[in-house]
Write a structure and sequence with these properties.
Layout (H helix, E strand, L loop, with lengths): L27 E5 L5 E5 L8 E3 L3 H7 L3 H24 L13
Antiparallel strand pairs: 1-2, 2-3
């Protein structure tokens, strides 16, 4: 089932953070855990991972060492979707209106 890119991003408008709803710079790292899961996390914080990718054993056998590269592509695609959604919100919407009178 394809992802609907036009869904609204949930923004906490009640937040006391002065930068709420705006992009913040962060450094992300993709690491492989001891159990083989790929973890995307903020490099500067010790919180739970932002995202976890867990390939099945059958798929790991099929892909071999390419699981890391495929995980990177999956995360890149997710970041692109988020960026596109943010850009869509930031740009003004222009609607064509039919004129009431033609010259």
């Amino acid at each position: 089932m394809p992802y609907d890119i036009d869904n609204d991003i949930e923004v906490d408008n009640e937040s006391s953070d002065q930068f709420a709803g705006f992009a913040k710079e962060t450094t992300l790292e993709l690491v492989e855990a001891d159990d083989g899961r790929l973890l995307l996390r903020d490099a500067e914080q010790d919180e739970a991972p932002l995202m976890t990718i867990d390939f099945s054993d059958k798929l790991k056998e099929l892909l071999g060492s390419d699981t890391q590269v495929i995980g990177q592509h999956m995360i890149h695609a997710a970041i692109q979707v988020i960026m596109q959604k943010q850009m869509s919100k930031w740009h003004a919407h222009v609607y064509d209106k039919e004129p009431t009178h033609y010259s």
